[in-house]
Design brief:
- This protein has five helices and 13 strands.
- It is of the alpha+beta class.
- It has two domains: about 15-70 and about 200-230, no CATH class; about 75-200, 2-Layer Sandwich (Alpha-Beta Plaits).
- The strands form four sheets. A five-stranded mixed beta sheet has the order 2-10-5-9-8, with helices on one face.
- A hairpin with a 4-residue loop joins strand 11 (about 190-195) and strand 12 (about 200).
- Helix 3 crosses helix 4.
- InterPro entries: DUF2344 (IPR018768).
Length: about 230
């Protein structure tokens, strides 16, 4: 790993758009500058081996283009709503989407700030849901509790609209109030396809650049230390 110069060198690692505290994620990214060229697959394996179980490096590419952080334009999230009927979640999602503006307030470093949560949401829908076992156990089918799943795509704006802001908006405009805190997982983050409203692969420009460089790069070694972008 490369380090900065000066009296207090720091490792050249940067984390892009980390998930909010208290949420799970399957799509976090970091950039690492290396002191010497390394094979990307080898590096991914070594990084993965050094991390605790459950924290996995699933992919890595050599950065062939600049501006990786700017590509993270939106995030796809899954909200697990225990105790909420799926039909009620679907109704609330439709109300939210048909409301032109949904103002929510949140405590920030500069005090209470009010902003429009609806403006950042490009997609919101109820996914397949199911009944979860009752916390009390037992085999009685009536003891199961409903569980709704919402999937949403949120554009990265300033101030950032978080999943809990969307839940606050659903509560205010559609009276959707889960009896227990929602389970929140980020499924993806990357460029936003405006046509489909989906989040695409942020590694695509680097993969394309690497493929295009193959015919001319045979037998050549990069003069500069590579920067590796990993997920």
């Amino acid at each position: 790993m490369a380090y900065s110069a000066g009296f207090t060198p720091h490792p050249k690692v940067s984390y892009a758009n980390a998930a909010p505290t208290g949420t799970a994620s399957e799509a976090e990214y970091l950039e690492i500058a290396l002191a010497a060229p390394r094979e990307v697959a080898w590096l991914r394996e070594r990084l993965d081996e050094s991390l605790p179980a459950g924290l996995d490096i699933v992919d890595a590419v050599e950065a062939k283009t600049s501006g990786f952080a700017e590509r993270l334009e939106a995030s796809a999230w899954e909200l697990r709503l225990e105790g909420v009927d799926p039909a009620e979640a679907e109704r609330a999602a439709k109300v939210f989407l048909t409301t032109s503006s949904v103002e929510v307030s949140r405590e920030t470093k500069k005090g209470i700030r009010t902003f429009d949560a609806r403006a950042a949401v490009t997609a919101l829908e109820a996914a397949d849901a199911f009944a979860s076992p009752s916390p009390s156990g037992g085999s009685d089918a009536l003891a199961s509790v409903p569980c709704a799943i919402l999937r949403l795509v949120v554009r990265h704006l300033t101030p950032a609209v978080r999943p809990d802001d969307v839940l606050s908006g659903l509560r205010s405009v559609a009276d959707l109030a889960p009896p227990v805190p929602a389970g929140v997982t980020r499924l993806a983050q990357g460029p936003l396809d405006e046509r489909t409203g989906t989040v695409t692969d942020p590694f695509a420009p680097d993969r394309d650049a690497a493929t295009a460089a193959l015919p001319t790069a045979a037998g050549q070694q990069a003069a500069a230390a590579p920067e590796i972008t990993g997920q």
